[in-house]
Structure formats: C-alpha cells, structure tokens
Amino acid sequence: MRLAEDALSGSHGPPPRSLTILEPMASQNVPAAQQSELVIVANTLPVRREEVDGELGWAQSPGGLVSALSPIVREAGGCWVGWTGGADDAPEPFRHEDILNVAVPVSEVEVAGSYQGMCNSTLWPLYHDAVRPPEYHRHWWNPYVAVNRRFAEEAARRTALGGRVWIQDYHLQLVPRMLRELRPDVSSGFFLHIPFPPIELFLRLPWRRAVLEGLLGADVIGFQTPAGAYNFTRLADRLIEAEPQGETIRYQGRDIRVGAFPISIDTDRYANAALSPEIRERAEQLQQLRRGRKIILSVDRLDYTKGIDLRLKAFLEWLGREDRSIRDAVMVQVAVPSRERISEYQILRRDVEELVGQINGEYGELGVVPVQYFRRNLPFEELIAFYLVADVMLVTPLCDGMNLVAKEYVATRLEDDGVLVLSEFAGAAAELPDALLVNPHDVNAMAATIEQAVTLDPEDGSRRMKAMREVVRRHSVHEWAAQFIEALV
C-alpha cells in the first residue's frame, strides 16, 4: 500500500506539494571551452586556499574522494562544481591541475539554514539512525532548496551535450531531479556517502517526498551497502508510484539503477607510505607511548555518531578488571575537530574531555596515563606512523556509511599483524567480517572485545589481518570511482 503524501512544511505556511518545475536550458550560454563531458557536483570544491611563500593560492584538499575522482576528472578534461566553504565566496571559474573549478555562491543565511540546519541538524542525525534527535525546522527547507537549485543550474550550464554528471552526498539530494528538468539530455548519477536510513525513520522527514523525487531524477543511485539500496527501494515502492524491478526502479517511464557501490581507499598509497623510511622512523619515536604496554588506537572526527564516549567508557570498564592495570595498555584517542560552532558538538567535546580526565585521574600514575588524547587533525605521514605502532585499532561508530579508517589501518599492516575491532554498524563490517565485530552500544561487550583483542592468538590475528588486507587490496577507491562512472552510460 502506498502512502498518501502530506503537504511539505515550508517557512511561511504550507508550500506546494512538490518542487517548482524548472524550464529546460541549454549549455550554450557557457563557452564550449568551459563545458565538460564529465562534471562532478559536490558540496565543496576539491581545492582549498593555502598561503604559500606569503601568497594565497589553491592546493588540493585532502581526503579519499578528491584523490579518487581528480585523476578521472582530469583525464576527461572535466569540471568540478562546488562551494569554497566560505559564505558569499565565489571566485570566477579557474583551473587547478587541469580541472576546471566552478564555485557556487552560498550566502550566510543559506549556510545557516541549508548547511548547518538542514544538512547537519536534520539529515545527518536522521540518516545515522537518529542516534541524536533530528530537528525539523521549516525555515531551513527553503534555503536547502535554493542551494540545490543553484548547484543544479551551474551543473546544467557546465555540462556538454549528452555529458555525464556525478552528484555527491546528502547536501545535494534535490539536484538530480532539478538537473533532469534543466538538461534532459544529460546522464546523471548520485552517490550517498552516509547510511540511508530504514523506511520507518525516513518517513519522519517532513520533506520526504521532495527528497525522494529529487534522488529519482538520477539514472544511477549508489549507496555504501546493500542495506542502504534496499531501504531506498522499499521506500520508493511504498511512498510514490515507483516499481522496483530487481536492481532497477521503474519511475515515470525511466529505469533507474539502484545498487551498492562500497567506497574504498587508495590502497597503494597507504601501503607505500607504510614502507617509507621517514614514516617508519617516526613510528619508532612513537614507541615511547608504549612503555611495555599494548597500544590501542582510535582515530575519529569529533562527532556523536562515532561513539567516542562509549568507547572510553568501555576502556574504563576494561581497566577496572581485577587482572588488568595501566601497565597493560594505553589508549590513544585522536579526535579531529568537527563542526565546532554547533552546540551539540561543543557539548560532545566537553563530555569526551571530561571522560579522559576521569580515566586519567582515576588510573594514572606519575608520568604514566592510560589515555593519550589528541584533539587535532594529524598530517598524513603522522597518521600512518600511528597506524604502524598500534597493536589494536578500535573503530566503533554507532552508525557509519563505511568508515575508511578501518580500511586505512588494514592497508598499512604489511606484516599481517595488528587487530581491528570494528562496529557491526559500520558499512565496512560487511566487507571485513574477519575483524572482531562488536556492538558499540554495549559497553560490557566492548570491554570484553578489548580483552579479546589484546590477548588474541598471533596466528589467529595474522589469519584475520591477511584476509582483510586481501579484501582492501582488491577493491581500491580508483576502482570504485571507475565502476560508478562506467555505469553512467
């Protein structure tokens, strides 16, 4: 049975039942030299401003997505449409390393309503199993629509006749439909980097139909896991006149491919870095953290979906065992600052740091503490050095689309040593079943799994790590990107 859709909630009374239909447009109002056969549309550009020798310029942004897509876009002579990250900041289109960067302006009001509001306070918690209650404020919707429309219009202008457009993530879920209305000749794909929630959660969203119809404007819709694809297909079947047919959805006379395209990492980059003499020398320096103990490492953005507080409580529980003490293990928690202007994230930071203080105050000794806490973003080389020195890697998010930290750690374990403890609710768990899987909501179970990890038989640990390294080696981020773009026929 399909649901009768309610009116969408707007900022001033009930708005129309669906988004405004956009008039088709041609790409000819942009010079041919600035039109591309392949266009990436993402929330942010692949570059950021950096000062070099006293002058402000552009440098490639860090991260797996940029490193995966940039070579493909560069080879195609393509274009990247995105936001600079600053309010009212939209320089003229410019080329950087053979990629045309087109900045979309986002006003201060739109940053507050669309990015900080709709994206970070509504969609992010909702899509992560509502581990924190989502907020549904009507005045956030119109800025979200406006920003999506601006991205769609810029993509429509920049795409050559019959070209391909790949749209990234939850910030831009309305773009596929808008782009189809503007440029019906274009083939488009959408990839969701975070989980897609069960239908029972998604139906809470006041703008559920508009978001669903927005996504169905794409020709290919990709998710991190089969569960995400299943949730979406089930929703389309229930909410609107869409007909699931195996791996496709029949909607408005079109066949839309829906499937899992699990993202990965640049495996060779991490493996080669693990062989670097400079990084290995730094890893030797980090051995001073050990002092005869096992090193347990966690690396996360400081986000409530990562379960850092529950992980610390589990370590505290483990330290309290009669047969364990500060002399057995040290926990190194790297917490990368995130969304620090949002009150919930400020509260999370305070709670995490209070827990660290509690553990160190209760179990620390002169010159020796059980938790080493770093609130900073580590340079790539430093991160690899930490991976090399860690005996146990704890990756225990409450909910995660994939979690690439788990794959990064595995890729650096060239001697098939080390133990990965992985949340059942990370997308990576489906690909890495040889990790020690754990329910991160169960503090007692996590404490028991920490004990299992630090006492794991080396032969068993080597077998597990070897199997996981083979999985990560076979499925690189470059193959992921090529596979998706190939699907955009």
Description:
The chain is α/β, with parallel strands linked by helices and 489 residues long. The chain has helices at residues 64-75, 108-127, 141-158, 175-182, 199-202, 208-215, 226-239, 267-274, 277-286, 308-319, 343-363, 380-389, 404-412, 443-454, 458-474, 477-487; strands at 36-44, 47-52, 55-60, 79-83, 94-96, 99-103, 159-168, 187-191, 220-223, 243-245, 248-251, 254-260, 294-301, 329-336, 371-374, 392-395, 419-423, 436-438. Helix content is 40%, strand content 20%. Residues 4-17 have low confidence and may be disordered.
Q: Give the integer mean of the pLDDT values.
A: 92
Outline the biggest β-sheet: 10 strands, mixed
Q: Strand arrangement, largest sheet?
A: 5-6-4-1-7-8-9-12-11-10
Cα gyration radius (Å):
23 Å
Strand tally, please?
18
Give the DSSP E fraction (strand runs of 2 or more residues): 15-25%
Assembly of the depicted chains: single chain
Shape: globular
Segments where pLDDT lies below 50 for 5+ residues?
Answer: 4-17
Cα-to-Cα separation, first versus last residue: 33 Å
Helical stretch tally: 16
User: What is the structural class?
Assistant: alpha/beta
* Overall helicity: 25-40%
